[in-house]
């Protein structure tokens, strides 16, 4: 009886584990990630897509570069000199991701996982004077790099894996239901575990939407960054001013023409009284 009593809980535990395994397998099977960078006409820009249940839930297009300071020995092997590695996100990178109602995540790995980028997005609701307003933002960036990788690093003193993290980040703030677009360069500072050095992340040609994608592989309406809006205004302002100036000139010429025609049709009264006898 004791053996049977002990066997029943074991069987129940096994069933629970099998159910959990089956559920996890279903979740993994329903999630897809794709690197579509080959479709981009910009060789420096990557395109990543995360899909769940056969529907696109996160899309990201951007070019990224990391400026990483690192120490090397000087020629006297006593002093340290700080060098700089410029690491660009390359095509053919491995991508992972997950989507949620209020949190989404994108992970990218390249150069045999010597480099890894993690971007965390959150969606929040705020109480405004007009009522509740939802926005999403980039809340965290983590960059893992291996300074023993020989392509970008030359004889780094503290060679090995290092992690650089953002702190209190609130970037790419966008109204919920819209995508974020910005062609201009944006920089994000990351604190590295390598002797507290600062890694600079440079983003450009950005188009991202981590939530509320309605159509498969299609971004929602764009929310442009202030820099792009200002540049667009600077480009269109001369055209607008030119059109206004042209309109003012045309109106002035029209008024002059009408005035000249009216004055030409008026009877000229002679100033010399001797000419009155010839009138009538």
From TrEMBL:
Domain Lysosome-associated membrane glycoprotein 2-like luminal: 44-213
InterPro entries in UniProt: Lamp2-like_luminal (IPR048528), Lysosome-assoc_membr_glycop (IPR002000)
Location in the cell: Cell projection, Dendrite; Cell projection, Growth cone membrane; Cytoplasmic vesicle, Secretory vesicle, Synaptic vesicle membrane; Early endosome membrane
Superkingdom, natural source: Eukaryota
Record-level GO BP terms: establishment of protein localization to organelle; presynaptic modulation of chemical synaptic transmission
GO cellular component terms attached to this protein's record: dendrite membrane; early endosome membrane; endoplasmic reticulum-Golgi intermediate compartment membrane; GABA-ergic synapse; growth cone membrane; late endosome membrane; lysosomal membrane; plasma membrane
Transmembrane parts of this sequence: 237-256
Topology versus the membrane: Single-pass type I membrane protein
Sorted UniProt keywords: Cell membrane, Cell projection, Cytoplasmic vesicle, Endosome, Glycoprotein, Membrane, Signal, Synapse, Transmembrane, Transmembrane helix
Primary localization class, coarse: other
Signal peptide location: 1-29
Family note: Belongs to the LAMP family.
PANTHER family attached to this UniProt entry: LYSOSOME-ASSOCIATED MEMBRANE GLYCOPROTEIN, LYSOSOME-ASSOCIATED MEMBRANE GLYCOPROTEIN 5
Function: Plays a role in short-term synaptic plasticity in a subset of GABAergic neurons in the brain.
The name this protein goes by in its record: Lysosome-associated membrane glycoprotein 5
Organism per entry: Pan troglodytes (Chimpanzee)
Lineage: Eukaryota, Metazoa, Chordata, Craniata, Vertebrata
